[in-house]
Amino acid sequence: MLKLLKKFTKTEWTFAFLALIFIVFQVWLDLTMPDYMSEITTLVQTAGSAMSDILIAGGKMLACALGSFAASFCTVICAAKIAANFSANLREDLFNQVQSFTMAEIGNFSTASLITRSTNDVMQVQMLIVMGLQVLLKAPITAVWAIAKIAGKSWQWTFSTGVAVVILLLVVGTCVIIAMPKFKRLQKLTDEINRITRENLTGLNVIRAYNAEDYQEKKFEEANHRLTKTQLFANRTMAFLMPGIQLVMNGLSLAVYWIGAYLVENAQGMDKLSIFSDMIVFSQYAMQVVMSFMMLVIILVIFPRASVAAKRINEVLDTVPSIKDGPVTEPDTGLTGEVEFRNVSFRYPDADGDMLQNISFTAHKGETVAFIGSTGCGKSTVINLIPRFYDVTSGQVLVDGVDVREYDQKALRNKIGYVSQKATLFSGTVRSNVAFGDNGQEEFPDEDIVNAVYTAQANEFVEKMTGTYDGYIAQGGSNLSGGQKQRLSIARAVCRRPEIFIFDDSFSALDYKTDRILRETLAKDCGQSTRIIVAQRIGTIRDADKIIVLSDGKIAGMGTHDQLMKDCEVYQQIALSQLSKEELA
Ligand SMILES: Nc1ncnc2c1ncn2[C@@H]1O[C@H](COP(=O)(O)OP(=O)(O)OP(=O)(O)O)[C@@H](O)[C@H]1O
Question: Can you give the residue ranges of the ABC transmembrane type-1 domain (predicted)?
Answer without folding.
Answer: 17-305
